[in-house]
Amino acid sequence: MKKLSARRRHPLAALVVLLLALACTGGLYAAFAPASKAQADETAQSLAIDEGKKLYAVGCASCHGTGGQGTTDGPSLVGVGAAAVDFQVGTGRMPAQQPGAQVPKKKVIYSQAEIDQLAAYIASLGAGPAVPSEEKYGPEGADIAKGGELFRTNCAQCHNFTGKGGALTHGKYAPTLEGVDPKHIYEAMQTGPQNMPSFPDTTLSEQNKKDIIAYLDAVNGDDTVEPGGLSLGGLGPVSEGLFAWVFGLGALIAVAVWVAARTAKAKKS
């Protein structure tokens, strides 16, 4: 007892007790304290990847391979990124209904949560374009006139100058952009789906993409009025001139035939 009392009175005893208390407190905090935000985000991402892998095995692996490496029925998905998945699945193009020259847009069969999980799994296979935030494709700060210039330079050859779509070769086509979600337009420019070339930020910057989306909204929005009446699909001056030529010239020929017939009949009488 005397020895124990002597140790308690040692000058370092209080320091040892304090260190032991701090160690116990730290251990208990580490064991029971809530996880940090970074840890929580990492856990949620891991769960999303796991769930996406299950969805992929059921709906995608038969064409794209069990590990996304691709098969004769579908291309590799390694490195396509989350944006490609969000576009293809979010527009109903994937899973494909049947093979063909081009996979059309159709009813979406996955919820947005499931699409996010699929995108997380595909993104884990290799780095690629991420799903854009609303700030990137929203109308704030967009230059509509600049967007029209960029669209006519890079897109109108296939989609025509108002985005109404057009035919390509071998049964392919450029779909209409009217009523398409701005996020999906941005993702299409990022990833280049099917016959479309990709426009990475090195080719069209984020601001350029925003401007193009604003232009399409301006020419195809709900408040858009066709200044010339009948729009003829917005196909441009060549087709509209051909329409006027065929029907206008046809009407003139019909009038000429009618006048000649009336003249001949009058002479006989």
Quick structural overview:
With 269 residues, this protein is mainly α. It has helices spanning 2-8, 13-32, 37-59, 61-64, 81-90, 112-125, 134-137, 144-154, 156-159, 182-191, 206-220, 237-268, and strands spanning 166-167, 173-174.
**Rg (C-alpha, Å):** 32 Å
- In the residues, how many domains can be counted? 2
What is the number of E strands? 2
- Written as H for each helix and E for each strand, in order along the chain, the element string is HHHHHHHHHEEHHH
Task: Return the CATH topology of the largest domain.
Answer: Cytochrome Bc1 Complex, Chain D, domain 2
At the fourth level of CATH, the homologous superfamily of the largest domain is Cytochrome c-like domain
Helix % is 55-70%
Mean pLDDT over all positions: 84
Protein name: Cytochrome bc1 complex cytochrome c subunit
Catalytic activity: a quinol + 2 Fe(III)-[cytochrome c](out) = a quinone + 2 Fe(II)-[cytochrome c](out) + 2 H(+)(out)
GO molecular function: heme binding; iron ion binding; lyase activity; quinol-cytochrome-c reductase activity
Keywords: Cell membrane, Electron transport, Heme, Iron, Lyase, Membrane, Metal-binding, Repeat, Respiratory chain, Signal, Translocase, Transmembrane, Transmembrane helix, Transport
